[in-house]
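Section 5.1 Outputs to date
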Amino acid sequence: MTPQRYQKLWNVLSKRQAGLAVVMENVNDPHNISAVMRTCDAVGIQDIYILNTKIPRHKKFGAKSSSSAAKWLSVHQYEDTQACFTELRKHYDKILTTHLSSDAVSLYEIDFTGRIALVFGNEHAGVSEEIRALADGNFLIPQMGIIQSLNISVACAVSIYEALRQKTLAGQYAAPSLPEQKRETLMKEWGLNENNANTAL
C-alpha cells in the first residue's frame, strides 16, 4: 500500500461519526441493506446494527449495491431485541424510529449534533411495536405526495444526509470523533498499518 492510500484511509476514519448510527430491523432484502451501508459509508457512519428477530441472520449482502461498503463498516448483527438495545444505550443518548404517528416529529426537527441512533424497519411492516416501545420517539420524513412512504434505502439516505448537514455546520467533521485507539483498531481490522504503507495494494 502506498503512503498516499494509507493516509486517505486514515483521513476517512478521522471523519467517522461516533455519535450517529443506523439500525435496521428485519429488513428482508440484502440489497436494501447494502444500499444503506453504502450511504452510511459516504456520510461517515461507522456502526451499523442489524436486528433480525423474524428472519434468519443475513450471511451476505448485495455486493453490487454496497460496492464492498460492508468491508469498511462495523456491522453488528443481533437476534435478540433487548441485547441490541442494551448495546445501543451504551453509545447513544437517543434512539428514534421511522414511524408515521401522531407524535412523530419531522426529520428536520431532530438535533443531530447529539448522539443518535435511527431505526428503519421492515420493507412491508415498518418498525415493530416492540421497537417503538423501547425507543425514545418517532420521526417522519415530510412528503407531499399521495404515497406516504419511501424505500428504506432512500429514507435512510435522506435522513442521514440531514444529519451530515447539521454536523457539518456544527464543525463535527473538522476533528476526529472516533477515539484514536478505535481508529487504530479499525485500521488493523482493515489489514492496514504503518509498516505496510509502502507495500503495493
